[in-house]
């Protein structure tokens, strides 16, 4: 009977094209709005590294002002000082650990005709590549020795390699930055973490960096840092070294801890480290260190923007309004079919038969509305993309899961919208309708 | 086959009670062609609706094919309608989007018959009414008389125990009405029981039995009283 019902639904939709189009348009508008905001929320809150999100931990040490917490009620700073970042790296108490910060430099292409461009770089340790497992197209990360000495090496993103070397294997080649030659040791394949959780301070949804260079270069080349630098007291002295050794925070630190014991051990180490630093006159606040896995850290940093959530709830309410409109239109449509419904009752259709028939019709309208809604959602996301540009790179895209969710949401919505009109239609007394035809 | 004994039906609103049938008794036997006449509001359509299980009744007893229908649920009533009753309406009640084949197919769909059997029944019943060559036509492409023939084919396709016809010629001119009446007579002669409500006394006289209804009661019995007793429950 299902295919018979589908055929009847199609005929019914064709019979009242204007009414049917209005219903589909109402559902499409609601689904379009809901899917646009749902897509943003879904991708914002998605687990960016499902296989390892429970093994990767973000480190927070409370090195802040003794008179007030970094954030209420008693939150430790969201980044580390340079001194602590390098100390923790040198201690190597975790299986893998990497400090990092974002920097920028102008890359000067060697090929004539190509213009210099500003490149965002991530200063980090070589464990970065094992921690976050970016896919390599060519080569690999740099060595421990390069980390220690601050050798001028770089791992390029695919986009940068395409720009500089037309996509060829550039391992062993050099690029010019800051009047120095950096040796390319690796080239990544396409890689876009959504969100880019390892550094939410410079935009959780920004594009990935153009390249990755040893952390040591922050000190040896005095490379600038991007993002906010927060200090609760002024550096003790003048100059870059004094600034590096200050209590200013601008560094992220990630470790890999494979189990609860490792996590416990590392927390003990952090506490011991802070106690040791207290002996040196630092860390005036009570012990307040934190280890947060990926999802905890995203929650802590409110990666899913409150505004996005509010917009999502508003969109759901809009969908509800659209559905109420659809309920009204379906009532009109089904009441106009009361003669046919009565006839079907007379020749043997039970109420259940008619209920299913009209639910199938509602669902078919939902499929049409859902398809329209997905097109509107896509247009909405393109609009958001054009408004926010790189800030939402990779977010404003419908994937297969979202398309499936959109269709299911549309069908469920239309079934809900169709439930009452269908019930009403099946309750029409057939006798009165048959006589009045 | 169809036995009603002291059946009553009252329509109620908040302020008004209207007795449509009171102590209505009638028996229809296999092969009968019964015409039911009476003035407007006399209760003949209510009788037909109750007989066709489209309306419930308040008191009395109604047995269809020997079984009481009083306490049956919607599904059981629907099955009885589908398998034992064929309806013919004054305004044909064809579905405008469906061609003749699909219109006749409607009751068979709810019978859950397979495709081949449905096709055979549809073709046969359209042949009986003389429209086998117009299966793919839409109702709007037919005259009123032809549309009523399609409705008759639809009623016949399910091979029902009896046909209930509510003013089957009411929307037709005299020539077409005569043609439809002749068809009904042929169908009756072929063995199908027919109960027909009509205003037209001339047509009622063509039926084997003629019942008159007034104020919800049978007031005048069959011209073949010896054959049928209305109170033989």
TrEMBL record, chain A:
InterPro entries: ABC3_permease_C (IPR003838), MacB_PCD (IPR025857), Macrolide_Exporter_MacB (IPR050250)
Residue span, MacB-like periplasmic core domain: 20-259
Membrane topology: Multi-pass membrane protein
Domain ABC3 transporter permease C-terminal: 314-430
Places the protein is found: Cell membrane
Keywords, ordered alphabetically: Cell membrane, Membrane, Transmembrane, Transmembrane helix
A molecular function GO annotation: transmembrane transporter activity
Name this polypeptide is given: Putative ABC transport system permease protein
UniProtKB/TrEMBL annotation, chain B:
Cellular compartments per GO CC: transmembrane transporter complex
Keywords: ATP-binding, Nucleotide-binding, Transport
ABC transporter domain span: 2-233
InterPro entries for this protein: AAA+_ATPase (IPR003593), ABC_transporter-like_ATP-bd (IPR003439), ABC_transporter-like_CS (IPR017871), MacB-like_ATP-bd (IPR017911), P-loop_NTPase (IPR027417)
Pfam families: ABC_tran
SMART domains reported for this sequence: AAA
PROSITE patterns: ABC_TRANSPORTER_1 (PS00211), ABC_TRANSPORTER_2 (PS50893)
SUPFAM superfamilies, A to Z: P-loop containing nucleoside triphosphate hydrolases (SSF52540)
Single annotated GO MF: transmembrane transporter activity
Family as reported in the entry's similarity comment: Belongs to the ABC transporter superfamily. Macrolide exporter (TC 3.A.1.122) family.
Name of this chain's protein: Putative ABC transport system ATP-binding protein
């Amino acid at each position: 009977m299902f295919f018979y019902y589908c055929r009847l639904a199609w005929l019914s939709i064709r019979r009242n094209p204007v009414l049917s189009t209005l219903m589909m348009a109402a559902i499409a508008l609601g689904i379009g709005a809901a899917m646009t905001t749902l897509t943003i929320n879904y991708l914002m809150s998605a687990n960016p590294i499902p296989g390892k999100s429970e093994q990767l931990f973000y480190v927070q040490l409370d090195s802040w002002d003794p008179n007030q917490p970094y954030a209420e009620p008693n939150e430790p700073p969201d980044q580390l000082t340079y001194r602590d970042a390098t100390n923790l790296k040198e201690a190597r108490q975790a299986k893998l650990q990497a400090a990092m910060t974002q920097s920028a430099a102008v890359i000067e292409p060697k090929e004539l005709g190509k213009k210099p461009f500003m490149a965002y770089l991530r200063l980090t340790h070589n464990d970065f590549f094992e921690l976050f497992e970016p896919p390599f197209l060519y080569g690999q990360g740099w060595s421990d020795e390069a980390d220690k000495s601050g050798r001028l090496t770089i791992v390029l993103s695919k986009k940068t390699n395409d720009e500089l070397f037309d996509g060829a294997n550039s391992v062993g080649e050099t690029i010019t930055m800051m009047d120095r030659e950096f040796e390319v040791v690796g080239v990544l394949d396409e890689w876009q973490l959504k969100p880019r959780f390892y550094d939410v301070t410079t935009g959780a949804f920004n594009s990935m960096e153009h390249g990755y260079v040893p952390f040591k270069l922050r000190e040896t080349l005095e490379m600038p840092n991007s993002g906010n630098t927060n200090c609760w007291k002024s550096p003790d002295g003048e100059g870059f070294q004094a600034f590096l050794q200050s209590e200013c925070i601008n560094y992220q630190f990630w470790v890999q801890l494979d189990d609860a014991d490792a996590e416990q051990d590392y927390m003990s180490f952090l506490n011991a480290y802070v106690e040791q630093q207290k002996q040196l006159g630092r860390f005036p606040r009570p012990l307040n260190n934190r280890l947060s896995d990926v999802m905890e850290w995203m929650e802590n940093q409110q990666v899913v923007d409150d505004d996005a959530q509010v917009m999502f709830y508003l969109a759901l309410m809009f969908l509800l309004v659209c559905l109420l409109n659809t309920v009204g239109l379906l009532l009109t449509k089904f009441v106009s079919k009361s003669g046919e419904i009565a006839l079907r009752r007379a020749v043997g259709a039970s109420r259940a038969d008619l209920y299913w028939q009209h639910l199938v019709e509602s669902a078919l309208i939902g499929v049409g509305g859902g398809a329209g809604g997905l097109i509107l959602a896509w247009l909405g996301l393109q609009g958001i993309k054009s408004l926010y540009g790189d800030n939402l790179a990779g977010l404003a895209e419908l994937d297969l899961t979202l398309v499936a969710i959109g269709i299911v949401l549309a069908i469920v919505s239309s079934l809900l919208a169709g439930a009452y009109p269908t019930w009403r239609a099946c309750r029409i007394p057939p006798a009165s309708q048959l006589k009045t035809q | 086959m169809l036995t009603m004994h002291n059946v009553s039906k009252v329509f109620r609103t908040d302020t008004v009670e209207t007795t449509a049938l009171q102590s209505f008794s009638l028996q229809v036997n296999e092969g009968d062609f019964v015409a039911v006449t009476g003035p407007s509001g006399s209760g003949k359509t209510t009788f037909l609706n109750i007989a066709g299980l489209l309306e419930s009744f308040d008191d009395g007893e109604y047995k269809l094919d020997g079984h009481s229908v009083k306490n049956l649920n919607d599904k059981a009533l629907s099955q009885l309608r589908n398998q034992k009753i064929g309806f013919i309406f004054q305004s044909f009640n064809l579905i405008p989007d469906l061609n003749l084949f699909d219109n006749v197919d409607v009751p068979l769909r709810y019978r859950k018959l397979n495709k081949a059997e449905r096709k055979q029944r549809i073709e046969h019943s359209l042949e009986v009414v003389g429209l086998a060559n117009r299966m793919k036509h839409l109702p709007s492409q037919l005259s009123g008389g032809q549309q009523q023939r399609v409705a008759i084919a639809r009623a016949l396709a399910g091979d029902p125990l009896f046909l209930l016809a509510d003013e089957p010629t009411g929307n037709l001119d005299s020539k077409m009405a005569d043609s439809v009446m002749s068809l009904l007579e042929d169908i009756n002669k072929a063995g199908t029981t027919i109960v027909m409500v009509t205003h037209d006394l001339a047509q009622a006289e063509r039926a084997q039995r003629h019942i008159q209804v007034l104020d919800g009661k049978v007031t005048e019995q069959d011209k073949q009283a010896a054959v049928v007793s209305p109170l033989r429950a």
